[in-house]
Amino acid sequence: MKNPSSVSYSIVLRWTLALAVLVCPSVAQAQWHAVVGAQSKDQGHQALAFLPNEIWIHAGDDITWTVETDEIHTITFLKAGQVRAPFTSGCATFPPGTPPVFSSTGVSFTGAACVSTPPLVKGQTFKVVFPATGNFKLTCLVHENMTGTIHVLPIGDTLPHYQSFYDEQAEDQRKDLLSDVDSHGDHSHDDGVTAAFGHTAVTVGIGEIVATGGGQQSVSVMRFFGKETIIHVGQTVEWTNNDPVTPHTITFGVEPGNPIPPATNGTLVTDDDGALHFTITSNATNVHSGFVIAAAHERIGVPTSGVGNTRVRVTFTKAGTYPYICALHDNLGMKGTVVVLP
Ligand SMILES: [Cu+2]
C-alpha cells in the first residue's frame, strides 16, 4: 500500500517539473537541437533538408545541428548580401577546431559575419550561438535547395514552440521526404527503355523539391534506374539526369581528380542536340561525363545560362561487361553495369 505522503510528494515533484518545462523556453540561453539530412537504409534516398527548417528561439540561445547522412552537408549562415561560395571554400575560413570536434562552446552568429562548417557527415555536430535578435537564413553550400530560417526573438517574447514540437516536426518531414519518391522504389520500371534515336535509356536519379515558410527541402534518389543494361555490340546507351537538384556523373574506369568537367578521352564528341557522346572500345577505355544535371530554370535577376550537360551517350564497340559509377555518389551505392553482347 502506498504511503499517502509519498504520493503527494511525487505529485508536487511532477508539477514542479512540468512548470519548469513550461517556463524553460522563456529563460535565456536555452539549448535547441535539429537534424541535418535523412536517408533510407540503403542510402539511395537522401533527404537534402534541415529538419525542421524553421525554428524560433531567444537571443542568447544556441542550436546544435547533428548530421544524419553519409551524404555531405554544410551548416552555413551567410551575411546579408553575401554571394554564395562553393562548399569547399565556405566563408573562406572555417570555425576553430577540426570536425567532428568544433569548439564545445559553439560559434557565434549575429548576422555581421558568415559562419559555415566544412562538409560534415553522419554523426558530426555543430553548435551555433545567437546573441543578437534577427531573422536569419540558413543554407547548405552543397545542396542549393536546402535552406531554413532561424528567428531570434528578444528574451521577453513568447516562443511558439517547445523542443518536442520540433522533434516531431523533424520526424514528420523526414518521413514525408523519404517516402515522396517511393513510387520509384522499383528501379526496374525503366530498365532498357528505348530512348529517342533508338538508344537504350538509363535514368540517372530523380528527385523532388518542397518548401515550408522557412525555405526549401529536397529529396534525391542517388541511383541509376536500370542497374544492369543489356545491349549488343555497336549499340548506344543514353543516360539522362531527371533530378531537379542533384548533379551526377557517368564514370567508367579511372575517376579524374576534378569531377566537374567531362574528361576528353579522344572519343568524345558533342551530338547536334548537345549530348556528350563517348565510344568505349575496350575495358581499358576511361569515360567521365563530368557533372550531368537537368537544365536549370531561370531566376529573376540572374543571367540565363546554357542548356548545359543534361545527357550522355556511350557507344560500345566490343562485347564485355562494363561497370560504371557516379563519381559523386558511389559511396551511397550509385553504381551500374552495361553488358554488351556480341
Ligand atoms: Cu550521383
Q: Which helices and strands occur, and which strands form pairs?
A:
Blueprint: H1 4-23, E1 31-39, E2 45-51, E3 54-58, E4 62-67, E5 76-77, E6 107-108, E7 115-116, E8 125-129, E9 134-139, E10 147-153, H2 163-180, E11 193-194, E12 200-212, E13 215-225, E14 228-232, E15 236-242, E16 251-252, E17 269-270, E18 276-280, E19 287-288, E20 311-316, E21 320-325, E22 335-341
Parallel strand pairs: 1-4, 3-10, 6-8, 12-15, 14-22, 18-20
Antiparallel strand pairs: 1-2, 2-13, 4-8, 5-7, 9-10, 11-12, 12-13, 15-20, 16-19, 17-18, 21-22
The structure holds copper (II) ion (CU).
Copper (II) ion (CU) binds next to loops.
Brief synopsis:
11% of the residues lie in helices and 35% in strands. It is mainly beta and 342 residues long. It is elongated, with a radius of gyration of 25 Å.
Q: Termini distance?
A: 85 Å
Bound molecules: copper (II) ion
Q: Mean pLDDT, rounded to whole units?
A: 87
Quote the beta fraction: 25-35%
Main sheet specs:
12 strands, mixed
Q: In terms of per-residue confidence, which ranges show pLDDT below 50 for 5 or more consecutive residues?
A: 1-13, 16-26, 184-189
User: How many distinct helices?
Assistant: 2
Can you tell me the overall shape? elongated
- Portion in helices: 10-25%
Sketch the topology as an H/E string, one letter per element: HEEEEEEEEEEHEEEEEEEEEEEE
Helix vs. strand class: mainly beta
Rg calculated over all Cα atoms: 25 Å
Q: Using DSSP, what is the number of strands?
A: 22
